[in-house]
Specification:
It is a single chain. With 129 residues, the chain is mainly β. It has a domain of 68 residues: OB fold (Dihydrolipoamide Acetyltransferase, E2P). The protein is built from no helices and ten strands. The strands form three sheets. It has a four-stranded antiparallel β-sheet with strand order 3-10-8-5, with no helix packed on it. A four-stranded antiparallel β-sheet has the order 7-6-4-9, with no helix packed on it. A hairpin with a 2-residue loop joins strand 6 and strand 7. The termini are far apart.
């Protein structure tokens, strides 16, 4: 059997429903909440078009994204010389910042993404010669 009690704690009143132990359990009536108004989804402002999957020359070494995420920062520019394991980009995935490093020594032949761009696993990020 459900029993209702009014309890005052620190001057604030609370209405509490309690079930008597040993009595037959009863289901409390469900309270219908008013439906929340549905607001239209915000539209993102137009940004400069980021390069999409570019044609990668056969002689170039295309480095791909290891996981889906967002490019936070590009640390190099085209023409820069990079060493193996040198950080080239910062990729945010699952609220963690991950360094995307060069697989080998070379020169950056092209950068195929822009800061803020969302990428999927396997998308070309940059190429090395």
């Amino acid at each position: 059997m459900l029993r209702k009690f009014k309890i005052t704690i620190d001057g604030k009143e609370y209405l509490v429903e309690m079930e008597e132990i040993g009595g037959a359990p009863q289901v409390a009536p469900a309270v219908q909440a008013a439906p929340a108004p549905v607001a239209p989804a915000p539209v993102a402002p137009a940004t400069e078009a980021a390069p999409t999957s570019a044609v990668v020359p056969a002689s170039a070494d295309a480095q791909v994204s290891p996981m889906p995420g967002t490019i936070l920062k590009v640390l190099v520019k085209e023409g820069d010389a990079v060493k193996a394991n040198q950080p080239v980009m910062i990729l945010e995935a699952m609220k963690m910042e991950n360094e995307v490093v060069a697989n080998n020594d070379g020169t950056v032949a092209g950068i195929h993404v822009a800061t803020g761009q969302i990428v999927n696993a396997g998308d070309a990020l940059f190429t090395l010669n």
